[in-house]
Amino acid sequence: MALTQHDRTDIHDLINLHGHLVDAGELDRADELFTPDITYDVTDLGFGSLRGIAAIREAARVLGAANPVGHHVTNIVITPLDDRSARVRSKGIGVNADGTVGSVVYDDVVTRQPGGWRISHRKVTARRAAPGGRDADPRGVLDRWRRAAVNQSVDGMRRVYAADAVHEFPFTRPGLPSRLEGRDEIVGWIAAGWRANALEYQRYRTLAVHDTADPRTIVVEQEVLGTSATTGEFVLPNVVVLTAIDGRIAHLRDYVDIPAAAAALGRDI
């Protein structure tokens, strides 16, 4: 059975309601938006895939002042799947407290519930480049590097590093190289680490991003949140100095918090 005009109006209102509730801080009303088992995929933004309303509330709480102050939704397109579900695609514009603006695409599946239509799956994809362009700026490259790390994607890492890239660890310990040269050596070392230890990155938390005199280089203060098969949940703080040329990492200086990494692995330094 096709969706009625009333269904379409309700779905439009549902998609629009998200911005109103989030911007008002009314996350206690999230059950008006989502099914209890919602999957909220924000991997493209470096936060992994959140499952359940409680996880969404917690992620928003942790992000704190870094949350956009304004969420605006446009270009809503509804495609019926059956009489109880539909696919909805829309564009989102996020306005930050400092006046900067970001653009995303929301890909949703909405389902008819006893209390009305709810979002059961949402994937958020950032728009960072014009059609036919590449995520060539250092912030776009940082996002791609983070996604590859969260997904443990060897192909993603190979795409984000330049062939002659250099990855340095100014803080080191026995077993941790101070310098890796070339894409093959860098990605090979990263992949070996994924196979050898039980750390699973779930998302990145950005504390600050600083521009430098060189527009190709940024300094990033960040934390990685994840789980360890040995010690449970962990937070790894670090600072990276990233230089991107032609949409790839040319040089990365990675200031790892050695004690925090050892603690997450359950090892002594």
UniProtKB/TrEMBL annotation:
Per the UniProt record, one Pfam family is SnoaL_2
- Looking at the record, the residues that make up the SnoaL-like domain are 6-123, 143-251
Q: What are the boundaries of the signal sequence?
A: none
Its name, as the record gives it, is SnoaL-like domain-containing protein
Specify the species.
Saccharothrix coeruleofusca
